[in-house]
Amino acid sequence: MRRYFIGLLCLFLLVMQGMAMSMLPSKLVYSDLLMTPHWILIFLFIVAIFYDKDETYQAVWFALFFGLLVDVVYTGVLGVYMVTYAVVTYIVHGLNKLLHANFVTASILAVIGVAIADTLLYVIYSFVQITAMSWGDYVLLRLLPTLAANMIFFILLYPLVKERVSLLGEEINNT
After folding, report:
1. CB of 125 within 8 A of CB of 17?
2. pLDDT over 90 (residue 93)
3. Measured between alpha carbons, how far is 69 from 42 in angstroms, rounded to an integer?
């Protein structure tokens, strides 16, 4: 069961990510602010930081697979989330090699990762003309609320999974 923990939690987060907006108060949901939950990505950052070693890239593989599932389930354009999640997880994995893994570092990497991912998604969707939001509106009405909402999720998720992911990483990498 331990070896399936990451995949099962990603699958659970995929389902919960779709229901995230229904959990918020209606005043917030129907306002001008747009929040995109990137819960799988947040968890994969924790995996990249505390599970993967310098030479392993399990989080990137999970990002490819679950990014594709996000595309299939929630979007009409295949490959956008798959590529974005994989690239950003790879960047976070690389930045983690330079830093010591702790809560502050993980928080900073989560903010940077979500900002890069959401901005990359905005650029791609603007390029294919799915969105016509101006850059200023995007930053104020989507990027900042998305960063805030995902950081709240990170703060809630981190103490629940960090230790288990670390132990699982040590256990699997020692065998």
Report:
1. no
2. yes
3. 16
